[in-house]
Structure formats: C-alpha cells, structure tokens
C-alpha cells in the first residue's frame, strides 16, 4: 500500500453538517424525504436507491458531493439551484474532479466523464432489470479523497503471518477474496473505519430488499475482519471509537441475518458479542441496540420472560439518549415479551407507551440503524403481539395496515407483514382472504429469502388445509407445496 494512503500521515477531516439540505427536508422524516427523491428520480428516468440512511449521511456532511445520478435528481427537485445552493461542495474540490462549465447538464450514465468518476462502490454499468441488486447504491463515500477511495475497496484486512484476508463489498453483494501480502498487519485508520461503517449500511440495505438467508454466510467474513482490526489497534482514539462502534453494529447486523434465517444460537452469540463490545467501550447507543435485538430473539426463541428483561434493560440504557422513537421500539419489544407470557394487561400497557412515544416524532438523537422503524413497523409489531395473544381480528387489522403503509423499497418487510396478515386471516376463519394474501407473498419470494417468512407460510398452509375448497386456497396450497425447501447452506 502506497505511503500516501497511510492514515497516520493524514489529518482527520470531520464532516460539516449540510444545514442547507436539512432545511430543504423541512418537517418530513428522512424516510419520507427519501421517498420523494426516488419519485423524482423516476420522473426523469433515473434509478437511485435513496433511503433514510442516505439522507442522514448527506445531512451529516459525510457526502460532500453527490454522484451524477443524484445530482440530476436533486437539480430536478429544486430547479434553479446549484449543488452549492443545496449545501454540497463544488465537484472540483472533491476527489480531484473537474468542475463542469456553468449551465452544462450532468453527464448521462456511461459517458466518458462518468467512467472513471464512479463512486467507490458504484459501477458504470446501467441497471440490469434481470439483476435483483441495484448496482447504483446510495452510498458514495465522497468524504474520502481520491487516494483513500482505493484503500476503502480493500479496507477490511486481517493479519495472520504472511496472509491477509480482504473482505469487500461489490455491487452484487458481499464477496470475499484472499489476498496474499508479505507485510505485517498495520494499525487501522480512517479508511478502515469508513469501510466498516459502509459494510453495516450495505448489509442492512441488502437485507431490507432480499432477506437474510442468502447473506448470512457472506457477511461473516467482514465481521471477522472487523474484530481483527480492533486487535490491530488504531492510529487515533477517535478512529478506535469508530471501529468499536462499527464492529458492534456489524455484529448486530450479522446476528440479525442469523436470527432471520433461523440460526438462533448463532444470533445469540453475535448479539452477546455486540453487547460486550458496547460495555467495554461505554457506548450506550450500541448497548441499547444489542439489548433490543436480544429481546426480539428471546421472544422468537420462546423465552418471553428473557425478552421482557432484555427490553427493560434496553430502556434503562436508552432513556438518557433522548430518542422517543428508540424508546417506542423498545416498548414494543417489551410488549412482545408480555404477549408471550400471555399477560394481556402488561402487553397493552407497553403498546400504549410505544404508541405515545412514537407520536412524539423523530429526533436528532435517533440512531441511523432505526431508519426501518416507521408507522408500518409499529403496526407490524403490534400485529404480532395480538397474534400471540390469539386476538386474530385485531392482529389481521394491524397486519393489513402494516403492509399497506410499508415503503415499496423494503421488499422483505412487505412480504413479512403480508405473511403475518395471511396467517391471522386463516386463523380468524377467513380462508379466501388468507389465500389471496399468501399468494401475494409467494409472488415476492423470488426477491426475498427469509426462513422466517417461509416458516410463517408453512404454518398458514397447515391452517388452510381443511379449507381447500375455498376460493384460492387450493391454488396457494399447490404452489406452496411446489416451493423448494430452503436450506441453510
């Protein structure tokens, strides 16, 4: 690695918040504003995968200048304004790019200018509709200079004698490569910390779209590399803090992939690893997140009392953080535990707290990982509580609202909520409606791989077996029976 890329000789460059862009968002939530960005992109024939995390990174100043696709979309949304008016740095000041003459439109994809000016994880190829992964992900890393960008591509490194394992993220998901190197492992710097944070974002985005089953094994290599970076040490204390936080969040993300694909023991181990990391470094946000997922896992694993305790512990840790939305989610985790204990009163009280806290709205203290938690998730988790309590009518009502409210970007959650709806309708005694919902879930399984969803469908099929003559039920049962059984390889 060239000496110019060694972070020990480079000063830290903390990003400056983009206040102009934040003002343009107004009172909309990041997720709502991201939906407007995607809609504007469709209006001009662009395809961007903007989500709340991307908006958060823009507003935090981590993206100093958007890539050309986003530039076209933003200028379409705010006609008459320049990138500078939107709070971005001039392109000429970012990664050595040349500025365009005034009035010249951003180049189209695939032109000579865009080739070679792609973001570290972008590809200059056009979107392929046959490929389920969008190559133009919304994570540009423009806060890194042009020398650091190549480092970022291969920044996950673990040392073991003369061998270095590099785990990278490609446009088609997670890949791993073994790279031979004759140098000893060096201490981690800013590029490694940035790459670790990027891995967390990419895994979450892919899980939102496609579910956990196809990602879990591929995500294990970046996690091993992350903890190897911690062992190697960091060039600065601020970098060390970023590495610990990133490694903990990555452990939770990988734990969730194990959790959603039915590997409960693996998930429990990953969540415990994240919790230990949080406590060693005194990171209450990470600790609350680890407890939150531990509570969810305990509920799913049939340990409802542990779910209640973990959710209550998360609330104690999270209360000083000042995020009502986080406290709302943690109250829902507690409600799920009370439902598992068949304690209707405790469940209803926790649900009421969750709703009241949710209505307080977003806060600057909301963590980046919580971008999934909107009204749809609130409805979906409440549906699960009523289902556990056997109140199928209430459960189906909330599940239907969850599916209707979900942003189309979160394909996995649409499938999850609709599967919940199908099961609740089947148990409520409405087999024709249940079959229609279940058939919709089957139509999404070419995009989503989730053992949780397949398990739910299998349960629905068992409930519907005596109702084969009802409208649509036979069709669902036949199509479900023809599904290949997902393995864990």
From TrEMBL:
Taxonomic lineage of the native organism: Bacteria, Bacillati, Actinomycetota, Actinomycetes, Kitasatosporales
UniProt-recorded name of the protein: Transcriptional regulator
Chain intervals with Basic and acidic residues compositional bias: 123-143
Source organism (scientific name): Streptomyces diastatochromogenes
First and last residue of the signal peptide: none
Compositionally biased residues, Low complexity: 95-110
Stretch list, region Disordered: 93-143
